[in-house]
C-alpha cells in the first residue's frame, strides 16, 4: 500500500506539473500585473522555481504532515475545503451503497432461487437494461419527473440535517446506484447458482432441510465472498465517481469540487482530490481483504496452508 501510494502520488503530481498552462498566470490573475518581478516572486513563493522532484518532495512532506497546500482559487487551505465538502459525498455514497446492496442482493437471490423461470429472466433483463443507462441520463429523468413535475423531492442541494439530507439525496442516490445495483444482482445470482450444484447443498436437501434454510445456511452463506468483494469494489469506485451525479443535482461535494478545480486550474485542489480518491479505493479494498476470511473461514485456511 505504501509503495502504491507513493507511485500514485508522484503520477498525480507529475500530471499536474505537465498540464497545459502556467499556474503563475492563474495565481496573479490580472494580466497587467504579469511583470517579470511579480512572476519571479510568485514562483519563489509557491516553489515553482524549484525542480520537479524538489517540488514533489515539498508537497509530499506537507501531505504527511496534514498540509495539502493552499488553493489557488479560494486562497484557503485545501484540507479545510475538502473537509467541508467530504460529508456530502460520503453521505451520498453511503445512501447509494445501502440501496444497491439491499436491492441488488435481494434481486440476485430471487433470480437465483427462481433460476430458469420467468422471474429470473425478467430480473436479468431489467437489470441489464438499467445498467445500460448512464447515471447522468437517469439523474435528469428523475429530476424532470419527481422534482419538476411531481414536486416530491428538491431539485438540488444536499439538505441540512439528517431528515432533510435524506430527502435531498434520495434522487441522487438512486441515480448513482442503478448501474451498481445491476452489477451486484448479477454477481449474487451467478455466485448462488454455482453453489446450488455443490455437494453440501445436495446433502442438506437429502436431510430434509426446508428450502429456505438451505438457501440461507448453505447457498447464500458460501456465496458471500464474490458478493462482498463486488460490493466493496463498487463502493470504492463510487467514492471516486460522484462527479457526474453531483453536477446534475447541484451537490457541493468532492466530485463538484474536482470539476471546479480543473476548470480554474486550481492544481493543489486537483492533486488533493485525486489523492483522496486513490487512498479511499485502497482503504476500502484492504478492509475487504481483512473481512473475507471472517465471512468465509475457508479463505483463512487456504492462506495459512499456502
From TrEMBL:
CDD domains: TM_PBP2 (cd06261). It comes from the Bacteria. It is found in: Cell membrane. Keywords: Cell membrane, Membrane, Signal, Transmembrane, Transmembrane helix, Transport. It comes from Agromyces soli. Belongs to the binding-protein-dependent transport system permease family. SUPFAM superfamilies: MetI-like. Residues 1-18 form the signal peptide. It is a multi-pass membrane protein. Residues 86-288 form the ABC transmembrane type-1 domain. Its main location: membrane. This is ABC transporter permease. The chain crosses the membrane at residues 92-113, 122-146, 166-184, 227-254, 274-295.
Amino acid at each position: 500500500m505504501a509503495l502504491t501510494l507513493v507511485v500514485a502520488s508522484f503520477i498525480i503530481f507529475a500530471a499536474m506539473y505537465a498540464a497545459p498552462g502556467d499556474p503563475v498566470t492563474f495565481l496573479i490573475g490580472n494580466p497587467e500585473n504579469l511583470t517579470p518581478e511579480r512572476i519571479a516572486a510568485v514562483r519563489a513563493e509557491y516553489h515553482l522555481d524549484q525542480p520537479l522532484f524538489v517540488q514533489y518532495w515539498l508537497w509530499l512532506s506537507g501531505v504527511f504532515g496534514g498540509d495539502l497546500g493552499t488553493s489557488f482559487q479560494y486562497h484557503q487551505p485545501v484540507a479545510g475545503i475538502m473537509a467541508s465538502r467530504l460529508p456530502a459525498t460520503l453521505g451520498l455514497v453511503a445512501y447509494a451503497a445501502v440501496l444497491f446492496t439491499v436491492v441488488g442482493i435481494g434481486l440476485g437471490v430471487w433470480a437465483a432461487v427462481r433460476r430458469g423461470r420467468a422471474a429470473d429472466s425478467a430480473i436479468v433483463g431489467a437489470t441489464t437494461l438499467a445498467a445500460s443507462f448512464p447515471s447522468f441520463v437517469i439523474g435528469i429523468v428523475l429530476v424532470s419527473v419527481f422534482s419538476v413535475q411531481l414536486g416530491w423531492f428538491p431539485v438540488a442541494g444536499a439538505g441540512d440535517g439528517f431528515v432533510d439530507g435524506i430527502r435531498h439525496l434520495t434522487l441522487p442516490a438512486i441515480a448513482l446506484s442503478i448501474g451498481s445495483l445491476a452489477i451486484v444482482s448479477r454477481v449474487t445470482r451467478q455466485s448462488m447458482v454455482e453453489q446450488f450444484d455443490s455437494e453440501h447443498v445436495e446433502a442438506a436437501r437429502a436431510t430434509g432441510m426446508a428450502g429456505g434454510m438451505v438457501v440461507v445456511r448453505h447457498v447464500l452463506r458460501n456465496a458471500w465472498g464474490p458478493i462482498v468483494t463486488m460490493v466493496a469494489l463498487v463502493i470504492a469506485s463510487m467514492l471516486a465517481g460522484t462527479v457526474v451525479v453531483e453536477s446534475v443535482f447541484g451537490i457541493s461535494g468532492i466530485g463538484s469540487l474536482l470539476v471546479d478545480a480543473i476548470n480554474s486550474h486550481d492544481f493543489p485542489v486537483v492533486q488533493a482530490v485525486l489523492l483522496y480518491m486513490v487512498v479511499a479505493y485502497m482503504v476500502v479494498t484492504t478492509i475487504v481483504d481483512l473481512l473475507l476470511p471472517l465471512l468465509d473461514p475457508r479463505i483463512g485456511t487456504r492462506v495459512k496452508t499456502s
